[in-house]
Amino acid sequence: MTSFLVRRILGAIVILILISLITFYLFYALPRDPARAFCGKICRPETLTLIRHNLGMDEPLFVQYWHWLSGIFMGREFTQFGACPAPCLGYSFATQEPVFSAIVDRFPVTLSLTLGASVVILSFGILTGMLAAWKVGQPLDKIASSTSVIGASLQIYFVGPLVVFAVVDTLGLLPRPSYVPFTEDPLTWFVHLLIPWVVLSIIFTANYTRMTRSQMLEQLAEDYVRTARAKGMSGRSVFFRFAWRGAMIPIITIFGVDLATLLGGAIITEQTFTLHGIGELAVRAVQNTDLPMLLGVTVVGAAAIVFLNIVVDVLYAFIDPRVRLS
Amino acid sequence: MRSHSRRIATATAVLAVGALALAGCAKGGGGGAPSAAASQTPLENKAVSAITVGTAADSTGPAPEVAGAKPGGTANMIDRDDFSHLDPGRVYLNYNSSVSLLFTRQLTNYKEDASGSIKLVGDLATDAGTTTDGGKTWKFTLKDGVKWQDGSAITSGDIKYSFERLFADFITEGPDYAETWLVPDPNKPFRDQYKGPYDGKELDTIETPDDKTVIFHLNAPHPDFNFTVAMTGYGAVPKAKDTKQKYDKQPFSSGPYQIVSHTTDKSLELERNPNWDKNTDPIRHAYPDKFHMEFGLQSQQSTERFLADTGADKQAFTFHNAVAPERVQEVLGNAEAMKRSIQGLTPFTTFYNINTKRVTDVNVRKAIITAWPAKQLQQIAGGEINSGKIATTVLSPTVLGYEASDLYGKLAKPEGDPEAAKKLLASSSTPTPTIVYAYNQTPTQEKITVAIKDALTKAGFNVVAKPLNPATYYDAIGPVDNQYDIYWGGWAADWPTGSTAIQPQFDGRLIADNAPNYTHLNVPEINTAIDQANTIADPTEAGKAWAAIDRKIMEQAAIVPEYYQTYFGLYGSGLGGVRFDPIQGEQSALDIWVK
Amino acid sequence: MTTVSWSSEPGTSRGPEPFLSVRDLSVRFSTEDGVVHAVDGLSFDVEKGTTLGIVGESGSGKSVTNLTILGLHDPAHTEVDGEIWLEDQELVGAGASTLEKLRGNRVAMIFQDPLTSLSPFHTIGRQIGEVYRKHKGASKKEARDRAIEMLERVGIPQPATRVDHYPHEFSGGMRQRAMIAMALVCDPDLLIADEPTTALDVTVQAQILDLLKDLQQQFGTTIILITHDLGVVANTADNVLVMYAGRAAERGTVREVLSKPSHPYTWGLLSSMPRLTSSVDVPLVPVRGTPPSLLNRPAGCAFHPRCDFPQLVGSDLCFTQRPDISPENGHGDACYLTLQQKRDIRTGDTKEQA
């Protein structure tokens, strides 16, 4: 298991460096000149040159990339912004705040949103899928399957405001979604994120219900399940102990992919519920062509996805012993 | 089987969308683009009635009490953006200036009285400065009892330091008038001549014979230097507390409030500064105990909240957000909301630059202005209240010296006069000229372009419209040899005299890439007139001279004036003393009290 | 339809009571295309301590028969008629919990492909142990010890280590042995082996078959061996049942059926087998035609479309009326040809084969 982890982590680092390199070149090759933003209303040419020099933009692109990369490990000194301790992802061109602290500050919001939604999606989806498979062909199965299609057809920016309007404004059952730090008050944190979690899960759960159902049915037709029954294991035991494990493998794989979608969807979710997470940072960075922030958010987002995929792989190895030894 | 249930799902979704749309309509009133202003009552946008220089008496605190005001409570400010800079030296935007008034003081500042007249008075200084040599040397004396938030005295050394640090290489965003005037050679880059105080060197041209006196030795006469130092950019910074780059997030206060915390893009908290003495301050009040400021609200959201006027929003105002264009009609018709509305003329004017390097025949340029469909464009932009009053001069009414004049009869025929334009073209070198019109590619601008094209074509022009990417608009029109003939621009004077309203844009010697002289106008007569006007000591006389230059520029038809920009905003019912600041063009926090 | 039911025939006691008795078993699947008659009026007996080989091609119904014995068919889409008696316990009508108690306990089954038939997620020891724990109420330790014991019994080296390995860590032959160990852990009276050696290579095949024979000798287990390979039957079984299209075609002792086959299908099977003794250039003679569709079976004898001899019968019985197995006891077949005709054809064939 250790060598497996080590290999994956090294691979992840290589991927991240590649991603950062490509992103860097893509963004910094754009025609827009960020130096203008640091110049006054009447911008003299010599001031513009000074600013470009301060920002390090008069250096070749590769040297700029190298500064950025080394800044992550060793910290950096910026004329325009001051000292930037490691890990330094630069300063936002728009707000002049350190990119790293901005991301770290907003990270718990996106994390709470995504993880919380994942828990709801997986538990609901898998439970209803197993229920549908347990009662295959019967009314319960049909209900579960059709609601899942409706769910998959919905969009966050449509369902979100609708739910808020109904539950918060009209019925007053729950408070308006916002982020309260978990460390401050776990209960409030939970209650205030409930609506975004449920909305996200309405849309994603459908997929997992259907997948779990079909995977369970497939597994139940597998030979080794037949053997289990031939050994006299009870129906319930066969269902929950045997078929379940095989069904989970493709589901966890799909979830690894979906996690990227969830994180990306976090942008829309954060906009819909006015949550100040990394998604909002990303949107604003794009609107302002805020290159350091864009770069920082992209790399951090990529790192999160890579890390989560490693977790998925480890989980994989736990469930399926055949993976462990390869 | 599968497609069947999917069809049901889609049908359900469509129904639900319809329901939501209906709900939105019922709740909010008109949606969609700003409607034509047929039934709109023009608001009274008063120009300032006079701008004068005040006396020492005018400069003495306290500021006159606001009727009915009482101390206490927390005032809330909601707005779209966080303040990008709070370090005075890096402030240029009016948005940052508005909030800086709460904790940053300058040598001089503006005092507005009930009649709408504005006086330049001493803020930290005892008066608006004195000069005996026509503006080459300026002397300011600091008041007694002006202190920093930690109780230490504000000294002349602090003032000198505040100017010196502007030469540092990370302070690039603010104005640089004073810097250019305080070095030996105004024509060479000022940073080459002095590097700032961080290596221990001082700026000799600022003299501080004692703790209370500051003497500025400028390299040329500048009679309105006392207006210059009223800019937030020349606000006071304490030498002992200068945290350099970090100062931008949390400056040290000399004003009625001090900063408690600042979370970028989220909130700013201010509380009373116990060491601010109101007797030293002729313009500010400090009624609320606290200010709580929140960011991230689009104008639709803030308009919504002001209209709802519930909870903490009752004690809310906004610096910058205006009433959202699509809700303007609704607000105008809501008598209760109108009681809590603010309107006024901002310092901003907008216009269309005519590239005089390419369109060299003045009659062609005059024909453009004559044919221009000003009224139609105003309608497309949502009427006067959303865009502004139709302008006919270079100077805004908010500038000292403004004189109303309408050389091309636009007020009589705001829809444009194609016949008269044709006549002008007939007497020009090219009866059917081709004109390249570059514009910001947005939905509204597309409509405006169509209208412009129509009107100019009727007059005989051949119009080529060139859309530009909004993100790189200024990069595109910045080069002196850009390939466009007409392109939009906007401007506000940095202080309300003609100097900064006219010189940066129309002085032919200042033509450079990315410089504000987008018309590339270079008329020797105008350049000389500018030099002369800059030396006139009496502001009113100077104003007359600038008005004459304004008329000359209009005779040159260098720009097509568009609007004197207006502001229309709301605030909560639980606040009193909310007024319009004509210098910044935004709501003012200085008189606010919590009911 | 006449059935073979030795014990109910008055006066004829052919040795001891059959251990397993299948009587007139019919199994029908409802599918989208119609009703599939997988097993159609099948009857046979198995005596205690013997090995019955069930032979037939794919679709003959041999696997379905055995799954039905254990009640492992899909109850939603399957209809079962007839009776299956395990000593004094009737199985077709038995409830789920009764069947659960029997499975793995009195009746055990081993399957064709041990790789897919064993759970990849659990160790061999766990899989063997849990049967023991379920039926005998043993503790974890006892179950593990028993698993090691079983692994040893089936000839797996280092059983104490291998008990904690996963199925994919075993070779094909070892896996099948492990499966056998799992089937035998509760000392079942009846072992049903569904093509246990088909997925293995020949040498391993021989080992497994020997193992089964040894276990039968040691523990007196009754074995039903399902295969399509007559060679396996010849080697291991005592009695043979040849199935075709869900029905019995011929049955008897191995000796009887293989040396004096009396059904045209059996002739086809035997002549299509390669023999070590025949010369290489004698062509194999497959049974002509294709297996029948179990949806629309031909009327009369199921085999007649592929049979060379219906015209010898004289009438059109082959095409209209299904033949019963006759004689009812001993070596019987379901064919209208007379004994004489059969002998003639057989000797004629034998001559060709020589």
TrEMBL record, chain A:
Residues 107-316 form the ABC transmembrane type-1 domain. Keywords: Cell membrane, Membrane, Transmembrane, Transmembrane helix, Transport. It is found in: Cell membrane. GO terms for biological process: transmembrane transport. It is a multi-pass membrane protein. InterPro entries: BPD_transp_1_N (IPR045621), MetI-like (IPR000515), MetI-like_sf (IPR035906). SUPFAM superfamilies: MetI-like. GO terms for cellular component: plasma membrane. The chain crosses the membrane at residues 9-28, 113-134, 146-167, 187-208, 242-268, 293-319. CDD domains: TM_PBP2. Belongs to the binding-protein-dependent transport system permease family. This is ABC transporter permease.
